[in-house]
Amino acid sequence: MSRNILKSLRNIFNYQRNIFLAFEGNGIRCFATTNITFANYGKTCTVPLPEKQQTISDHTKREVNHHSNLASTWWDINGPLAPLHHMNAIRVPFIRDGLVTRGFVDPKLVNTIDVLKNQQILEVGCGGGILTEELARLGAKMTAIDLSNELINVARERLKQDARLLENITYKIEPIEVHMKDKSNFYDAVVISEVLEHIDDKVPFLNACVQCAKVTRF
Question: SS3 for 44?
């Protein structure tokens, strides 16, 4: 890895803070990358969810439009999103090892190329699928959602290039609050990476994400 890439990663991680949201009391697994600190967000914290789909805020619309405008260069590893591509070297092991360490992966699969085989993982705010694809290549059954039509179209086009990805990935244009209604207590893990800084109302968003993760007992 070149010095420029390492410098880029260092700058990003100086700005961002990786958080593994592990709700010990009920076994919820939610991986997130964020630049905020949640004070007093304990195991018993609950946030009421809206009964009806919320209207997308102007802030969210601006963020979606901004990222949609990058669709044509999303998979250019030397383009404006190069840092996201380079961060997979850190993000993928972080998620993989988190699931392995907590005992959610079949021991027979540890240290194999299919280490995440049959793990149902939701990625919220997947964009064009940079992280989604790498987790799917480890065997995970990925459901990836985003609000951008343009970025989901880019991600879906790439599925045509790899039969295994086509089998392991489902992309949806859908807000998490809607997705949660049909997929509550469903996923082995929920991934939110490089997304929270673009969300204006973070706590209800995170609560909806957490609702999608399986509730298990230890």
Answer: coil
Q: Tokens representing 102?
A: 């907590």
Name the nearest CA neighbour of 210 among 132, 122, 146, 126: 122
Contacts of 42 (CB under 8 A, 6+ apart): none
Q: Which of 92, 119, 77, 43 is nearest to 193 (CA)?
A: 92
Sheet with strand 120-124: strands edge to edge? 17-23, 28-34, 189-192, 120-124, 141-146, 169-173
**Which carries the bigger pLDDT value, residue 209 or residue 58?**
209
5-49 pLDDT tens trace: 445 444 544 443 333 443 333 344 555 544 333 333 333 333 333
What residue has token string 């993989």?
Answer: 96
Task: Please report the domains of the chain, with CATH numbers, ordered by start residue.
Answer: 57-212 (3.40.50.150)
Tokens, residue 75: 């998979």
